[in-house]
């Protein structure tokens, strides 16, 4: 099917008339009669009684109020009103009831304890929500009891309670369009697996999507349509959930679990023909039934294969083309020698018998699996990290490598001793040759050559004008090694003032009395050299009051040292979180000035230096403070020049510091907005005096909570004693929240932020709705799009 932009144009042409005048809400003790309807404010959803056949059987439900009615939710699926008409009412305590014609309650939402007047409201998002109008607390919502349909921004998942698990799952109708009672299919975000959606038919697995890999379900490539829908998964030890978000909020979507074939159908509304258009189904035609190829079998090219050459199907199974028995190992695993064979572009096996450990690196993952002989395979995927399987692996599908879908799986197989020896000999010879080469290179390279090599070649993406770097470098003074040694007391431990990415930083005093800071590249930091070159190149080029200034450098044999102006007040990190003895707290005025300074520095990096430079590691530890508390951005080791036409860096390794990294970096999207995000976090930390990472739920959740509870100013650092401007603090929090929006395009740029921070009368854009932060905050509650706006700051 051709999904083109035309359906984006789908503008709703709905009549906003409301026949029964019930509006969108039911007050306490109020009833909705059989012939009455609630209509959401935007007119898109209706709630009322309906029948599916000409019989008198009545249900209460919510549907899309469109020419082609689509029922999205049914209350009394199991308990229809058999004859006569029903009544729907809200008790004063906040419970919803359906009564049949003889006044008997046939359905309810269970005990509620509303402190004030409760109200039931049909929201613009299609959800029915009961809340306590006195406390605003949500008592119940229809998404707690999903039917066969999933609306946008609705969580599908589970919450672990002390002794049970609450699941928010879809279940198909018994028969589509006729009988809404729960049918044989259930689709859920399975708590027993590692973040994958599974459709069950009765108690059997019917289909699984594959685990979430940060960009999508590993086994469902169709989902890759970021221009139309965004998908989110959030999980912790206490629960997990999935939801989808239309990019165009006016576009209507629905996802239905079909009662007859068990597939999930995703539709959107096509306004040009007033009908629902099918977007995709999961599974689709190319997906084999669950476990078709059996353990260690892979579905590929419309048939089954064993996952590696170390396995085979039984001859009689092959003859009968009957693969579900799976593959057998050529050589059993009970010998001493094992190796891992890589299979790429794979829908990973069922995670029911997988164990996840997100803290392991890829090589740790391998050795973890290697060590435990019952570990049969492992994978290292985005977002989840290390997954290791124990026992047989099943339900794999290989995608066409040209499409790049799927992820790699490493499968344990037995290996012969001999092949190991060859490998070892190869490695030894290789290492030997490399060592000789390195030695030769070291001997040949005299100091001058090394310098030329360092500075002649511009770094990262600056290929276009190779002479620039060299000219700029001449601005730096070249220090003599003995001068530096003397200044730092022969690199005495007492003079160490910091530990950078590349090595130690020493304090020193030159003969002239001038104080300097010396960064000494650790000899072992091999990858540090790239970063150092980067830093030198950028510092040669960049000059600004709020960037740290390089005074000179020194090259001694292979060792390289950089000399910076000395910063009397160390770093913002030190001043906020690890205040040195005898130093006094930063007061609000100083903190505000520091934030302004950082924003000027970043603005210069992003826009005003003639190039676009992204720092990539903005955090209080990299904000140095001079005698007058003027902030200087430092540590350009990770920064990079930015080519405007290419905003996607698929091969960029994700770098930065946890707690300050923008969410889109996970997907390889790098732009100046990543620095904006980090700066937002620096603002919150500067105000609160607390590290983001040391707060259990993170500062963003904390702010949102304070915001919703109307006690925003409690975020303020308790150590800020003197009266400080509440207006400024509110303004800064507001700016920080804008910087921290999940969607990079929605964040302001540094120029706008700089204006907002420096000119107190300049307007600030209002905050968009809560879902913009959902990627960052804990458990979902469905909120009306109209009520999503924050309390004004
Ligand atoms: C419901 O209650 C609100 C105030 O709580 C009131 O303004 C409104 O008129 C009531 N609606 C009906 C239909 O009684
Ligand atoms: C519901 O019942 C009424 C009256 O029996 C009938 O006219 C109507 O067609 C039925 N609706 C559906 C969808 O069958
Ligand atoms: C109403 O519900 C009660 C209890 O389920 C049932 O006994 C009664 O027959 C129902 N009345 C009608 C008219 O269906
Ligand atoms: C909840 O109650 C408040 C009153 O506290 C009301 O203004 C709001 O519209 C209600 N929200 C929902 C989602 O029903
Ligand atoms: C679903 O429909 C079938 C056939 O109409 C019926 O036998 C079965 O009892 C129904 N299941 C439920 C749970 O109502
Ligand atoms: C379910 O699938 C059948 C065909 O397989 C289709 O005709 C029907 O419209 C589907 N139902 C829904 C609710 O999508
Ligand atoms: C939407 O409706 C128009 C008019 O019937 C049709 O031409 C178009 O193909 C439809 N779009 C999709 C994606 O089905
Ligand atoms: C090794 O595996 C083979 C075949 O799986 C089995 O027969 C044998 O008993 C195993 N040996 C040990 C020591 O487990
Ligand atoms: C992950 O691995 C680390 C290091 O081996 C270990 O300390 C940690 O407990 C593991 N976590 C889980 C959830 O297994
Ligand atoms: C191997 O892993 C399994 C599953 O995590 C565990 O039960 C078993 O104790 C482990 N064995 C060893 C030797 O660590
Ligand atoms: C996640 O899975 C999808 C679908 O197979 C694939 O296209 C994508 O490349 C994977 N992403 C990563 C980061 O592995």
Automatic annotation (TrEMBL):
<dbReference type="InterPro" id="IPR024171">
    <property type="entry name" value="SRK-like_kinase"/>
</dbReference>
<dbReference type="Pfam" id="PF08276">
    <property type="entry name" value="PAN_2"/>
</dbReference>
<feature type="domain" description="Protein kinase">
    <location>
        <begin position="491"/>
        <end position="757"/>
    </location>
</feature>
<dbReference type="GO" id="GO:0004674">
    <property type="term" value="F:protein serine/threonine kinase activity"/>
</dbReference>
<keyword id="KW-0547">Nucleotide-binding</keyword>
<keyword id="KW-0245">EGF-like domain</keyword>
<keyword id="KW-1133">Transmembrane helix</keyword>
<keyword id="KW-1003">Cell membrane</keyword>
<dbReference type="InterPro" id="IPR000858">
    <property type="entry name" value="S_locus_glycoprot_dom"/>
</dbReference>
<dbReference type="Pfam" id="PF01453">
    <property type="entry name" value="B_lectin"/>
</dbReference>
<dbReference type="InterPro" id="IPR001480">
    <property type="entry name" value="Bulb-type_lectin_dom"/>
</dbReference>
<keyword id="KW-0808">Transferase</keyword>
<feature type="domain" description="Apple">
    <location>
        <begin position="327"/>
        <end position="414"/>
    </location>
</feature>
<feature type="signal peptide">
    <location>
        <begin position="1"/>
        <end position="21"/>
    </location>
</feature>
<dbReference type="Pfam" id="PF00954">
    <property type="entry name" value="S_locus_glycop"/>
</dbReference>
<dbReference type="InterPro" id="IPR008271">
    <property type="entry name" value="Ser/Thr_kinase_AS"/>
</dbReference>
<keyword id="KW-1015">Disulfide bond</keyword>
<keyword id="KW-0675">Receptor</keyword>
<dbReference type="GO" id="GO:0005886">
    <property type="term" value="C:plasma membrane"/>
</dbReference>
<protein>
    <recommendedName>
        <fullName>Receptor-like serine/threonine-protein kinase</fullName>
        <ecNumber>2.7.11.1</ecNumber>
    </recommendedName>
</protein>
<keyword id="KW-0418">Kinase</keyword>
<dbReference type="GO" id="GO:0048544">
    <property type="term" value="P:recognition of pollen"/>
</dbReference>
<keyword id="KW-0325">Glycoprotein</keyword>
<feature type="transmembrane region" description="Helical">
    <location>
        <begin position="424"/>
        <end position="446"/>
    </location>
</feature>
<comment type="similarity">
    <text>Belongs to the protein kinase superfamily. Ser/Thr protein kinase family.</text>
</comment>
<keyword id="KW-0812">Transmembrane</keyword>
<keyword id="KW-0732">Signal</keyword>
<comment type="similarity">
    <text>In the C-terminal section; belongs to the protein kinase superfamily. Ser/Thr protein kinase family.</text>
</comment>
<dbReference type="Pfam" id="PF00069">
    <property type="entry name" value="Pkinase"/>
</dbReference>
<dbReference type="GO" id="GO:0005524">
    <property type="term" value="F:ATP binding"/>
</dbReference>
<keyword id="KW-0067">ATP-binding</keyword>
<feature type="domain" description="Bulb-type lectin">
    <location>
        <begin position="23"/>
        <end position="143"/>
    </location>
</feature>
<dbReference type="InterPro" id="IPR000719">
    <property type="entry name" value="Prot_kinase_dom"/>
</dbReference>
<keyword id="KW-0723">Serine/threonine-protein kinase</keyword>
<dbReference type="InterPro" id="IPR036426">
    <property type="entry name" value="Bulb-type_lectin_dom_sf"/>
</dbReference>
<keyword id="KW-0472">Membrane</keyword>
<dbReference type="InterPro" id="IPR011009">
    <property type="entry name" value="Kinase-like_dom_sf"/>
</dbReference>
<dbReference type="GO" id="GO:0002229">
    <property type="term" value="P:defense response to oomycetes"/>
</dbReference>
<dbReference type="InterPro" id="IPR003609">
    <property type="entry name" value="Pan_app"/>
</dbReference>
